Amino acid sequence: MFGAPNFFFTGKKAATTYYRVIQQFNSTSSWKAPTGVTSVDYLVVAGGGGGSASTIGGGGGGGAGGFLTATGFAVTAGTTYTITIGAGGASSTSGVDSSISGGTTITATGGGRGGAGGLNNAGSGGSGGGGGYGASAGVRVGGSGTSGQGYAGGNGGNNAGGGGGGAGSVGLEQPTGTNNGGAGGNGSA
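and the corresponding structure tokens:
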């Protein structure tokens, strides 16, 4: 992608003439539906969660921002829609939601924060953050993803944190017998 949350709109005129315009938004702004446009296609990606800033090691990875896409979303010509771009989360902080509003609201959920080593479980979000390491406290649970937007983060193990969830698959747990953190989940095309 482009390294930032994006929205892409494809317009369709009401009559028999069709045209395609792709508009990308990298910051919060507004969009006014042109005359004759009755529907759009969209791709909405929220900010990803920050990995853990654990002071005792073994923090979990942050989850990917929620990913939503659809075709034929009804819009009203002349109506102004607000496009909100969610920022990525700082260390140990969940990502911020991205949305389209001005009628029906479409919201992609920010990615979950990574869990701190030995202290807490990961945050849930568009995709869940990876759990921190468990030490003597046992396994720390990866955060859950939002249905239709992303997958859960991997659990943290005894020595390392789990990987954050992705738009296409779950984050992985710490590999058995290693001190390596779990891999992050795959993206989606």
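(Above: one complete record from the training split.) The chain has a mean pLDDT of 82.
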